Structure formats: structure tokens, C-alpha cells
Amino acid sequence: MKRQKLVIFDLDGTLVHPFTTIFLPGVRLGLRRYKKQNPNVKFAIATNKGNIGLKHWRQVVRDEGGDIGDPNANGWTTESTIELINTVALEIDAKPYWSFRYQSKKGNWSPVPVGEENAPLWSESWRKPNPGMLLQAMADHGVTPAETLMVGDSEDDRLAAEKAGVEFVSAEDFFRESQPRIVVSYYPPRAWEWLSLRDEVDQDATTANYEAMLRKSAEINERSSLTRWLFSRQQTLAKGSSTKNLTLSLC
Q1: Residue 23 DSSP SS3
Q2: In the chain, where are the structural domains located?
Q3: CA-to-CA distance for 117 and 99, rounded, in angstroms?
Q4: How many other CB atoms are there within 10 angstroms of residue 2's CB atom?
Q5: Intervals of the chain under pLDDT 50
Q6: Of 42, 108, 131, 178, whose CA is between 20 and 30 Å from 224?
Q7: Three-state DSSP class for 182?
Q8: Taking the domain 6-176, which CATH number applies?
Q9: Count of other CB atoms within 10 angstroms of residue 245
Q10: Neighbours of 183 (CB within 10 A)
């Protein structure tokens, strides 16, 4: 991957779990590594938030006596959506761009709120797979398509990059080297060698932190059968099994 002056990230499913500010595993580490290798690179976020457009559409229809769903069904407001985007953007030092326009599966577009007719974030051109947000990000940062990279997890992301003339890399590939791994080892020191960690890591603290996270996950996540099995197995072996050196190391 060549060095770029601007990297534009999709948000949900690329940087964070959808509709949260919780970063996906390996994302923070991947961004730190990329920034360390490319100190002058700038980050931007381009995200579709059509839930606001859908909310508005439902409200307009309801005001006219119709019904296409509860406008408040998803619980999101314009303010809370913007706050979520800005929270993530601030943490990774990125300039955020978002589209509120909604397009149905049949290709119909949501109406635009009165007074927002000229707002880019309500324009069709800003909703991916259209390239409006990417073009604006490049203009704001003074870079060319050749100096820009788009990272995303969907076909809409790829198409937006293609239409903007910029290189596209999937989130999976971009963050591949920073993805966490689970290693069950019969000899703890070897686990760190197998993980081939490249950053300076406090191994004792990292192990303790992740084992604490595993315990918490086992307590609250009843759907995670793998987590429960790993923790249960660790506890069983810790209570007198002959396999004394077994430990659970996560990264």
C-alpha cells in the first residue's frame, strides 16, 4: 500500500461497531501504526446516516395522515447522531463528513427538510455510493485522488471510491496486521512469540487486562459460547488439572 496524504474511512463496520462509539478490535492499533509510518497523513470519515433521513420521511408521511413506520423507532436524533460521529472523529483526529439522505431499496429518496435544500449532507450526491463526501474531503484537504485512499467494508464504499477516482482498500485488509488473536498456550512466554507483536507492550499488564475482559465477557455475554467455553476451560484447568501451565493469552 503506497503512502497517501489523506485516508478516508467509512464509520460503521470499518472503525466502530454500528451505531456505537466502540472501536472494532485492532482499529486503534492499526491507526497508530499507520500514523507512525506516515506522520503527515490526514484522516477523514465519510459515513451514511440515512436513519435521520428515514426518520424525517416517516414524520412527513405521518403529518400528512399516512404511516410508513414510527419516526422514533430507532431512538436516534439528529443531535445524538452528530455527537456519535464527532466523538469517533475526535478520538482519531479525523475530519467527519456525513450524509443524512435516505434511499429505499426501491430507489426512492427521502424528502429534504425545509430549509435544508442546499445543504450538502442532504444531497443525493453525498450519499455513498455517490462520491460527494469523498470529493469534499479531498477539496478541504487540498489533495488529489492519487493522494487519497478510501477504507471501507461495503460495496457502496468501493463504488464511492471508484467514482471519486481514489484507491480503495477493504477494512479487513487495512487492519489485517493489527487484528487481535486468541492463543491458548501451555507455556505462557511462548504465546507472545507466536503473536509476533511489533509494538512495545507491557506483557503482564496486557495479559491481566484481557483475562479480566474475558471474565467479564463470560459473565455478561450469554450468547458467546466460544468465550464461555474458553473461560470455563481455563477455570477448570486452574482448579487442579495436571496441565498446570495452561493460560489464556489475548492480544
Answers
A1: strand
A2: 6-176, 180-250
A3: 13
A4: 7
A5: 183-188, 190, 194, 196-198, 221-251
A6: 178
A7: strand
A8: 3.40.50.1000
A9: 11
A10: 16
